[in-house]
From TrEMBL:
Keywords: Antiport, Calcium, Calcium transport, Ion transport, Membrane, Phosphoprotein, Transmembrane, Transmembrane helix, Transport. Residues 129-179 form the Inner membrane component domain. One of its GO terms (biological process) is intracellular calcium ion homeostasis. Gene3D superfamilies: NCX, central ion-binding region (1.20.1420.30). The gene is Vnx1. Pfam families: Na_Ca_ex (PF01699), YccF (PF03733). InterPro entries: CaH_exchang, NaCa_Exmemb, NCX_ion-bd_dom_sf, YccF. This is VNX1 protein. PANTHER family: VACUOLAR CALCIUM ION TRANSPORTER (PTHR31503), VNX1 PROTEIN (PTHR31503:SF10). One of its GO terms (cellular component) is vacuolar membrane. GO terms for molecular function: calcium:proton antiporter activity. Residues 355-472, 576-718 form the Sodium/calcium exchanger membrane region domain. It comes from the Eukaryota.
Amino acid sequence: KAAEPRSDSSGLRRGSLCDRHCAVINNVQGDLSDLGCHLHHPRVPPAMCSPACCQQHSDEVCESCLMKTTLTAENAVEANKLSNNYKFGFKKWKSHVTARPWEDRSEIVKELYSDLNVVRSSGGSTVTCGNILYLLLFGWWLSLLYVVLAAVMFITVVGAPYGQLCWDLAGYFLWPFGKVIQKVEVQRSRQALGAREASTEASGAGETSPLLSGPMPHRWHPQCWADTRHWQRAGTVAWLCLGYPLLVLAHGLVCVTAWLLIVLIPVAKLSGRTITSVLLQPPEKVLIRRLKMTEVPLEGEVILCCYHAVNPYYYKYAVDGINVFAVNLLPLVLVTLVLGYMDSHNRLTSSSIKFTLALLSIMPLSYYIGMAIASISAQSNFAVGAVVNATFGSITELTFYITALIKGSREGNRCYAEVVKSALTGTLVGCVLFVPGLCMVIGGIRHQEQRFNSRSAGVSSALLFLSVGGVFAPTLFSKVYGKLVCGECHNVTQNPLGHYLCHNCHFDLMDNNGTLYYSHVQPLVYTVSLLLPAAYLIGLFFTLKTHSHIYDIHISDCHMPGHHHSAVVHWSRWQALVILLLSTLCMSACADLATEHISPILTNSTISQYFIGVTVLAMVPELPEIVNGIQFALQNNLSLSIEIGNCIAVQVCMLQIPILVLFTIFYPTNFTLVFSDLHVYASMFSVVLMNYIFMDGKCDYFQGTVLVMVYFILLAVYFFAPSPSGC
């Protein structure tokens, strides 16, 4: 669109704004950038902005972007996922649901996924702490094993070539750094013949093909028949029977151990390639050289070339889109289920160990559920995404709460209901204070001051005030109209009219055959349980339909050259649905095991049951959400970090608690919507403090420290509090 004539100053101002706008759009390092006054240092200079991009965004678009948040994504699916992060009620997910284009990744990430077969220029000394750690953990005994196998293969005579190979590999695996293992195409004993054949190929132009534009490929050489004869040798049979199985076990142990340690994944790759490539080669084709003695080998294929055993950036590594931590914790789920259901009499392990394993297994399952929900929502329309998020968004917590209430009802133990109330309060307080506070502190280390959308945070805060008031309304009602009953009282002054010291006091709602509870408190609980989900639906309609502009989300159409617009999803919709259902099923089993083996901890532990519910049972299922919030804060996107905590807290009050009340109608339990005074005061104080901190739309690490310190003070109160009545 042709621009109208303007003054020089206006044109300069609008042009620089458009340049900055396009620079941010072309910024492929981050997923989000705030334009206007919040944009200080774009990472892509305006000179790199193409004129076509600026032409797409006219002056009107640039003016509107002053109040918009621009999202850049590689494809439509990823853009849909980023947009869902800003929608109220949708699960916030940081990781990609599609494969990122290789050219858009940093050199550090590219090195994580590269094979150990690239010879680079010397980057310094190979004597590092990580390499020394490899020597102490694996190098010395691997080298000793190769020496022993070398002696065994020399004794067999027919396996002498493999004995020489094992002797060479003993020196290599003692210190593999700065050395190269390559596959030579000619046998060492016939190097002269190979050189003569190479000279013939170099001088003979008749063997070139106009279609191939070069000499005939080496794979057509008659020496390929030697590979077939290799497997028929007596030495090879002896090697496969005596040496290779032991080395597979040894390198397999190294591979598994290094993979579980994550930072030692290069060692795992080293062992894996040794099993599949090096040890299956004919010994005369394996050549080991020091890097200082050779440049890039021209006469053979590089099989292994390792420089460092430790890479601290492997926490970013993903397998089919799944983070390496979630991959490593998945076997823990299988171990938990096998021990829990096969060892029901605690012959192998105790109840405390089973409870700990079940609780730790919830973390990877929460990750898989979150990624499955994000994948389905990103590949579906708004209605399907809203239904999936509403159905499975709180499945982790509800599964544990319902199984605990069922067990408490069967045993007639009120302690389970009190633990569930403590877990609900702990989730509310933790997501209001600890999650945003921790994100502010960690994000404030990198960014001096962080800003967020105060209007969207205000909507969540208003819903949070409403939900907290509704949840604790029956408790306040019982305090006003209930009858105070004490377990035991003692006269302190020995005067009948004097002061009495009473213990175990509580408000009795079942006086006069429960008239107060059944006629007044219970109808109030049901009314609140109907109004809170209705308010949640109104909030969804307000933020997603009628007033969606308060989030100011703009999906950019500009991409860097080389971006792939076609989405290659990690999980298809059906695959994500299957993973979601399986993870939910395993989550139910782990929750059942956790509640089954929590009894000894509640009865024998000296720690208050309040503290166990508020900390362990409340925050462990939320660890994947906390990690997502920290990652958003590090990218200067504190709005999503705050929304993560607010949305979880709102869902606790407006969805989880009403569902538990509805569940008690069909399956009677000891759960009543009457909380202790400590829960009421802690929750209300946390919500008031959170709203005070978020009023101005900006924060720093000091305000985050205040929230975290208040959270730890509340934890100290719960720690020293006496156990609830009934426990």
